[in-house]
Amino acid sequence: MRGQEWGGHNELSGVVHGPSVQAAVVHGDVHIRTGETAEQQLPWQLPPAVRLTDRTAEVERLERHRTLAAQRAHPALATVSGLGGVGKTALALAWLHGLRPDFPGGQLYADLCAQAPTGPVDPAHVLGSFLRGLGVPPQQVPEGVADRSALYRSLTADRRIVVLLDDAATAAQVRPLLPGGSNVTLVTSRRRMSGLALEGGYQVHLEPLAPEAAVELLAATLADDRVATQPDDARALVGLCAGLPLAVRVAGARLAARPQRRITTMVRALTAEHGRLDALAIDGDHGVRAALDLSYQGLPAEAARLYRLLGVHPGTEFGGGVAGAVLGSAGGGSGGDPGPGGARADPDGAWVDPGELLDVLHDANLLIDIGEDRYRFHDLVRLHAMGKAAEDESAAERAAVFRRIADHYLATATRAERAIDPRHPLRERSYGPGPVVTEDFGEGTRAALDWLERELPNLMAVIRRARRTGERDISWQLADALGPFFLRRKHYDAWHTSHAEGLAAARELGDGPAECRMLTSGGQGELGRGDNARALEMFEEAARLFADAGDELGYARTSNYRGLAHQRAGQLDEAAELFEWAAVELPRCGDLRAGGLARLNAADVEFARGRLPRAAEGAAEARTTLLAVDDSYNAARAATLLGRICLSDGRPDEAERWLSGALAVLREVAAHYETARALDALGELAELRGQRELAQGHYREALDLYVGVNRPGPAEGVRERLRRLDEGGATSTDEGGDASGSGDLGSGDRG
Question: pTM value?
């Protein structure tokens, strides 16, 4: 449509809210920019608040501290310390959730895992998560704690946010995580964080509930008249719970499940349990430990088994599918036949549903339901479950449970891998004796990516533990399954760590092909991190292994990889030689697609050298090959290169046809960098034709995308063209391509 020239009626009337566009003649695409950038993304990460009993004084103290800090234009930093189970996190969440109207910039949350069996969380990991939550693309997250902390402070300097750092181990762990600006940070810890005094930390030490408040919490948990009719027994019960809210809720949940039982029965049982703990000389947290022991003893046999076996799980939270895996639910097959989890026969022959058992544990206040069929333990409860597993299960059974958990994640990650990239060549996975239970995450690429994103901390925990416990095949195979995910979501820290663990595991196994997969896939991650030298070293090591094994196809693929590393380093002669050789050898070895990619990479190098006829011939040949193997994405990349060649060769109409067709495909698959390259070239084309505003629009969108995928060189070139246009001058089209290379190995070519 071309406005009034075609009979359109271009008029605005009435009340218009937000941006509006009136257009007469429009050439190309229309993009409406609202001005929202990645830095304006709002994270709302706090877990849901829970019931808070009798903490009014502590909330008032925290609020006075915040008000005074605000009056002085200072950040508000406070620490809440106290025994495990005393309600530190509940207090923190209740207060911070109430601040949301005054802090519209977002909420950040991290569990620092001081009590976790794997040890406290590295601040660098938390900072990476915070930066992504604040809208920083994964490619732009810096390396190292110092650089990440500096960027984090910069991004939070002008925001109004709150930060909860839960279960901190030391002040040193906390310091890099303090935001910039006049924001609010609350730290919870078993220890008093006096080391944060220099940062203005205000300390609140949380004592157990007073008897009256603890009785009130018990009454709310029971939701009947037993507390009112048995007041003395209620006071005795909360006394045995030491006034710790966690213990009161656990004991109350057991009573609530038995509405006919008198409170005095629970008092006698807890008294006996305290005596046992005292006899064993167990120090600290007697109230919680006694309540947990008693609640555990009262569980149905299968629920008790699930509880202790979940203590083997290496992560801090888990989905419902894990319950079926730890129980060895039927319906999943065994060995290499993964399937969905189902019911399982208990020792008496009755069939039980793992979901029903999770409900039993949740009703007993032993699990926290965090929504979307996901659960976590309170840290004390997790330690208790681990202890019960060590007491009541043999080492062999615990090892078998971990293997079923690991197989569950491997099988589901492999299914996600296939959904993301059906062309990715899979090596057959090896599973334990089974059954192998997979999780149903839905259909399609987005569902697969989202499941992997959500489970990434658990997947990384499994990769690390598997190697330590001798399940080395799990370690490298799970890292391998994450390859297509890393190529799209760019979690470079996890990519680096997982493949380093996987590479070590493959070497310990003496599995040469697995070692090559870890080297080539891990090398792609190093390229993404910008460590070209390390990437080239890994690719060359893989090439030696392939050559020693007589694997011609694997060796030819590494030539493509090595060429890309040289191209990224600006070593075009070395890159051209490797690409040309691979373009011939890969089809001879039976891999037409990889040969087409090598031909495309070679054509890109020729374009960078200014050899336009050779570049055009190579790009056209690559496009034909890639279309023949149904690779529309890389065929569109070849079309972009052909458009850029035509533009440099003075053929604007032909350039527009190539570039417009490529852009439509690249937008469809959300290939941001390649979309930016097509837009960049279309901007040059519009500028050449004197279409100043259209050129500016293309350049601005290309700039946003270049920045988003951390390509500073091309981004700076676009900025310079925009500056010249804004100043009224003209820019010239590039004679040749970007020497840093657009080369793409394709996620299927991993050796």
Answer: 0.79
